[in-house]
Amino acid sequence: MAERDESFAIFMAGAGPALLRTAWFLTGDTDHAQELTQAALVKTYVVWHKIDHATALAYARRCLVNHKIDVWRATRHEVVADLTSSGLEHEAASHSWSQPWSRSESLSCDGTVATSDHRDDLVRRLSRLPEQQRKIVVLRYYADQSEASVAESLGISVGAVKSAASRGLAALRQHAEGENEVRAQLVTHTEIQDPDLSRNVSPSIEGSLR
Asked: Same structural domain for residues 199 and 159?
């Protein structure tokens, strides 16, 4: 048991922040993202002795996504599941959406600093996408899931994923210089290390496992 807990603690320290960023993009709320990440890590811990540790992050991400899908199906009053453009603009303006980037900077692919304006702009552009397109774009390019994995997670066909991803990127390109910039910004944001998002992930999970 001690060896199992030690190996999982190492996994949790490395995977927790990445899962938390994915959860935040799917929820738009730091507290909800914390809860979603905790649920995914608890489920992963339960089967830690059974799964291949080399693919544990993918397993935990599936748990996270599937748990979030269950929430989407259970309620239609959550912000991210039922947002209009005006509602999302209000969320962005109140920093609910932009908080994870408020005190951090990231490097773009050419080595320049991505400004908070660029990051907030990307969040606003993502927020304007229809719910399904937004989920697919985030899962496909931010969470780096394959088309088949996204299709399986959302219960739709690979063709539907391709179509929605294409339309989503096209919509984002309307306010960007091109598809490569959009992809680069999404990938760049996976490297963001924000203390507000990362704080207390391990202690909260560890407490729930005791």
From this structure: no
